[in-house]
Write a structure and sequence with these properties.
By secondary structure, the protein is α/β, with parallel strands linked by helices. It is built from 16 helices and 17 strands. Helix 3 packs across helix 11.
Length: 436
């Protein structure tokens, strides 16, 4: 069944709602069987989704979350209550959805085969209906306006951040990207924003105003006091109606302090719209969320450490560079791999001055930039740095061998550049019992 679903990846990315709308209609609209919360953004949307879901579960609600992409196993995308969906149930629902898509295609109603993401989105909705989910947090896959998830009618939504990524699909300016992400805003729906650049915020404000959607700017109306010990932040947050903390955020990094204000205000907005969620449950979401491969530290035998971070665009790389500058001034080693369609310079330029050595590698996917080409780009970018900031650069095509090489020389190794690199490496390290 997985091979059948993965075969849809050959259709690539196709933005639009026609296919998913037809699939949902033919399934009897599973997306209407649960209350939904919608989360968009360039970065931070996965972390916010995880915090919101953790809060819903802390409040005792039958809750689910849909995220993408996955790290190692496709079932990670569909978390129902406290665990990814089991394989048997996933296979059953995937078969039903794909058989229905084939039937719609034969009848001529579905004029083009669904993409992989359209199919997984329909599968998510049907999984959640069959599980009796009451509330689901749905993460946007790409953009918002024409993303397959945008067939839902959410109780409230959020736009976490807006930066440059996927410009070939969303546009070359922040204003155009913001317009696409603001496409999740429905008439009358409360929309929460994180920190947005001024030109992006102007667009979101305009769209929210046109649609009569109450706009909540979390970056402005949540007071946050924060302190940190070794990268874990202790925060106290105050909104117009409640105080949260002091508490220690489960997710590491200073950017999570800013992210944390978004789920707080999103859940408060949902509560105002009728969702039964307490202040204590909201606080528990901040302290209990799990979101692997985002500044995730793995302790190695012999006292060595691997830091996994799925930074794959300029904003994510800048956050990682900030973390390394503060907590790893010794300039650790970096193992990096990027995708062909990404802006390599935007990802690596912030990181190179913060690391002492780099091993260029490639993720196990045809989308990966070949390690040899990445190595050449790294040398060109490093040549523009002051001599004291230039790391040594080598290449190892196999990512596991790249990590082993880095660990031979350094006590701390950072793995970053793409979730398609970080995910498989994380699993291989565990499966080979390198970790304690």
């Amino acid at each position: 069944m997985l091979d059948r679903l993965l075969s849809l990846e050959t259709f690539g990315i196709k933005l639009g709602l026609e296919n998913i709308s037809l699939l949902c209609e033919a399934l009897g609209h599973p997306e209407r069987s649960f209350t939904s919360l919608h989360v968009a953004g360039t970065n931070g949307k996965g972390s916010v989704t995880a915090m919101v879901h953790a809060a819903l579960r802390a409040g005792g609600l039958p809750a689910a979350r849909y995220t993408s992409p996955h790290l190692a196993d496709i079932t990670e995308r569909f978390v129902i209550d406290d665990a990814p969906v089991d394989t048997v149930t996933f296979d059953e629902v995937a078969r039903d959805v794909l058989d229905l898509a084939d039937e719609l295609g034969r009848s001529g109603r579905l004029r083009a085969s669904p993409t992989f993401f359209e199919a997984t989105t329909a599968i998510a909705f049907e999984l959640f209906r069959r599980a009796g989910t009451e509330v689901a947090v749905i993460e946007v896959g790409l953009g918002g306006r024409f993303d397959a998830t945008n067939v839902i009618s959410p109780l409230a939504g959020a736009i976490t951040t807006i930066g440059f990524d996927h410009q070939q699909h969303l546009g070359q300016t922040l204003a155009k990207i913001a317009f696409e992400k603001a496409g999740i805003i429905k008439p009358g729906m409360a929309i929460v924003t994180g920190w947005l650049p001024p030109e992006a915020m102007e667009v979101v404000r305009s769209v929210a105003g046109e649609r009569g959607a109450p706009l909540i700017e979390a970056a402005r109306d949540v007071a946050v006091d924060a302190s940190s010990d070794d990268g874990a932040f202790r925060v106290a947050l105050r909104t117009g109606s409640a105080a949260y903390g002091p508490l220690t955020l489960a997710l590491r990094g200073e950017h999570q302090v800013h992210n944390a204000a978004v789920p707080v205000r999103l859940l408060e907005a949902a509560r105002d719209a009728g969702l039964a969620i307490s202040r204590d449950a909201i606080a528990a979401g901040l302290t209990g969320a799990t979101w692997p491969a985002r500044l995730e530290r793995l302790r190695m035998p012999g006292g060595r450490e691997v830091l996994l971070d799925a930074a794959h665009n300029a904003e994510g790389a800048a956050a990682l560079a900030h973390y390394l500058a503060r907590w790893h001034p010794e300039r650790p080693a970096l193992v990096v791999g990027v995708m062909r369609d990404k802006d390599t310079a935007a990802i690596v330029e912030p990181l190179l001055p913060r690391v002492g050595s780099v091993v260029a590698t490639e993720a196990p996917t045809p989308r990966a930039l070949p390690a040899r080409e990445l190595e050449e780009r790294l040398h060109a970018i490093a040549s523009r740095l002051p001599a004291a900031e230039r790391p040594s650069i080598t290449r190892e095509d196999d990512p596991i061998a790249a990590v082993a090489r880095a660990l031979e020389r350094d006590g701390v190794v950072v793995i970053a550049g793409s979730i398609f690199l970080v995910g498989p490496v994380r699993e291989r390290l565990k499966s080979r019992a390198i970790l304690r």
